[in-house]
Amino acid sequence: MQNTRLTIITNSSLTGLERLFANPWRRTSLYIIFPLLGFFLASIISTIAGALGTWDPYIAGVLLLIIEVVSFLTYKRNQEKRSLFLECLNLLKMGLVYGLFLEAFKLGS
Fold it and tell me: What are the residue boundaries of the structural domains of the chain, listed by start?
């Protein structure tokens, strides 16, 4: 890729964030926040999909595609070489899936 100003700013920002969250306590706080954020996102998505009943198949297809892409990107790499962004995205995905399962159980009872 070419070294444009945008790529230089993006790369320096990402490395700055990596250095900021290299502290174990900060990284642990991210590991707690992102599954909770995914759980909250699942609650929002299920509420919207429930209100708009005609969108159910489309929302399910998009969510399945997003979950599979995140899983593919996360697990194709070695565990040592995963970036912080991929780890947080994977934790968000786990919280989303867990939240959708709990919403399905609530609707089934």
Answer: 24-108
42, 98 in Cβ contact below 8 A? yes
pTM for the predicted model, two decimal places: 0.80
Q: What are 40-97's pLDDT values in tens digits? A: 999 999 888 878 777 778 888 999 999 999 999 998 877 777 788 889 999 999 999 9
Half-sphere exposure of 41 (CA within 13 A, CB side): 16
Other residues' Cβ atoms within 10 Å of the Cβ of residue 108: 6
Judge contact between 40 and 100, C-beta under 8 A.
no
CA distance 38 to 99: 7
Write the CA distances from 55 to 7, 65, 97, 103, integer angstroms. Answer: 37, 15, 18, 17
Our CA dihedral for 90, 101, 63, 55, rounded to 10 degrees, sits at -160
